[in-house]
Specification:
It contains 21 helices and 18 strands. It is of the alpha/beta class. The protein folds into four domains: 116 residues, Beta-Lactamase (2-Layer Sandwich); 175 residues, Rossmann fold, CATH 3.40.50; 86 residues, Helicase, Ruva Protein, domain 3 (Orthogonal Bundle), CATH 1.10.8.60; 50 residues, Orthogonal Bundle (Arc Repressor Mutant, subunit A). It has a five-stranded antiparallel beta sheet. β1 and β2 form a beta hairpin. The longest helix is centred in the C-terminal third of the chain and has 15 residues. The N and C termini lie far apart (63 Å).
Length: 457
């Protein structure tokens, strides 16, 4: 068998498709997998302009704009990879991962090779994983989030009142929305009242409605949120901020399923599923006399608790990727990604502000970065500083090395300059080369550290 025949058999045995292009981006040759992936026969591909085969994709648009294959790496540039969806002659849409390589000078006029990998199975698996790790806009693979998903599904099968608790920023509103969307009432209205945002008189009007002339400024009758949400779900956010007088009226609505508008004596029946949310400890408020006990038990029929982000660190990478994708669309920067060091910083931080703080940190990083890769230095300072002394604890499951004693200890012990320099080098290595962290552990300024390193060089 000739070497050419051997090469042809080898190319046709590959799972990836390969297109060979000339300098004008015309297809000169291909293997069998390329035809299968593109969904066209050889006659429809050979001698055809490559961008027309992938018309409508970002790859084709970039190719037309640059006048050459946009996937071929420039000098001093790494390989480029792009995920596209191509539509073959049979109408089948195929998700494909593409990359390219320049070929050495040859007699056949081959300029570059485009490699195509069918991602159909990969996309199916990703969808299956997303379905398992997502519920509505909630994202999480941690055991506590998986347990929460099951609780939401169970609560969705009931019309009972739900109380969602958790720290500020954990996503309690997302839980309420997922509860509504998966319940029998999903086709009904979904309304929200932020109880802390309104003074007492306006809050009651917002909840229960009012008659015309009920108070100064009431120039027309108003339907309250309980009536407006009939047949659907009403979320009472920050329920712990409701004043005592309103608590009494709310208790009656939950007991009797009826409202009376302010300034009226007409009783109106309501059919609404009530979901309450709070970041406060209502049981403790009951003990202090700040919240009605009977109202608390009316609200806490089905309790759902959303764990803080620091208790589900395995969810941070999923959340960060999801949030970065959303922000990338908003800022028209679809290729944004986190470096491994930046992701490590995110996973190491304690996130007192939870998911809301994570979102803000990523938005800050996007503004600070110029290229597609977000590095630790682009993150807010308090987040980026966490990497050196928490990375080992979180990823190697070992304690971080204790801070080194300040150099005054070595002066007292009469350490020689050589010993001092060796100690600085040791701490610097433990800090991953981060001079700021090494200086902190040694109890000196970064300027002093730099001088000591230069003197000992």
């Amino acid at each position: 068998m000739s070497s050419i025949a051997t090469l042809r058999n080898f190319l046709d045995s590959l799972e990836e498709g390969v297109l060979f292009l000339d300098a004008e981006r015309r297809v000169l040759d291909m293997n069998r997998a390329a035809a299968i992936t593109i969904g066209r026969n050889e006659a429809e591909i050979i001698n055809h302009f490559c961008p027309t085969l992938f018309a409508g994709t970002r790859c084709a648009s970039a190719c037309e704009a640059r006048g050459h294959c946009s996937l071929t790496p420039e000098r001093h540039e790494g390989g480029k990879v792009q995920n596209v969806v191509i539509k073959g002659a049979n109408g089948r849409e195929v998700p494909v991962r593409m990359w390219a390589m320049l070929l050495p000078p040859n007699d056949g006029g081959l300029h570059c090779a485009i490699i195509l990998r069918d991602r159909s199975r990969e996309v199916e698996l990703e969808a299956a994983v997303r379905n398992r790790w997502q519920l509505g806009d909630l994202v999480g693979r941690s055991p506590v989030m998986q347990a929460l998903y099951h609780q939401v599904w169970r609560a969705a099968a009931s019309d009972a009142t739900v109380l969602i608790t958790g720290e500020s920023g954990v996503g309690k509103e997302l839980v309420a929305r997922a509860l509504h969307d998966n319940a029998a009432r999903s086709k009904g209205p979904y309304l929200t009242v932020h109880c802390a945002a309104l003074p007492e008189n306006l809050l009651e009007s917002e909840l229960f409605g009012h008659a015309k002339g009920a108070f100064s400024g009431a120039s027309a009758a108003r339907t309250g949120r309980f009536e407006a949400a009939s047949g659907g779900t009403l979320l009472l956010d920050e329920i712990g901020e409701i004043p005592p007088a309103t608590q009494v009226k709310l208790l009656r609505v939950l007991q009797e399923r009826e409202v009376v508008r302010i300034g009226e004596n007409v009783v109106r029946k309501v059919d609404v599923r009530v979901v309450a949310a709070t970041n406060r400890d209502l049981a403790a408020m009951v003990q202090r006399g700040e919240f009605r006990e009977d109202l608390y038990y009316r609200l806490c029929v089905l309790p759902l608790h959303v764990a803080p982000l620091r208790e589900r660190r395995e969810d941070i990478s999923l959340l960060a990727t999801r949030l970065l994708g959303n922000l990338g669309e908003r800022y028209k920067r679809p290729d944004l990604r986190l470096s491994s060091a930046a992701m490590l910083a995110l996973e190491s931080f304690s996130w007192p502000g939870n998911v809301r703080q994570l979102f803000n940190a990523l938005e800050y990083a996007i503004v600070q970065s110029d290229g597609p890769v977000i590095l630790p230095r682009h993150l807010p300072r308090e987040v980026g500083q966490e990497v050196p002394h928490t990375a080992q604890r979180n990823h190697d499951q070992a304690e971080a090395p204790p801070p080194a004693a300040p150099l005054t200890h070595y002066y007292r012990s009469k350490a020689t300059p050589t010993e001092e320099h060796a100690e600085i080098q040791r701490v610097l290595a433990e800090a991953g080369g981060n001079r700021a962290e090494a200086a902190r552990r040694l109890g000196m300024s970064r300027t002093t550290l730099w001088k000591r390193l230069r003197e000992g060089a």
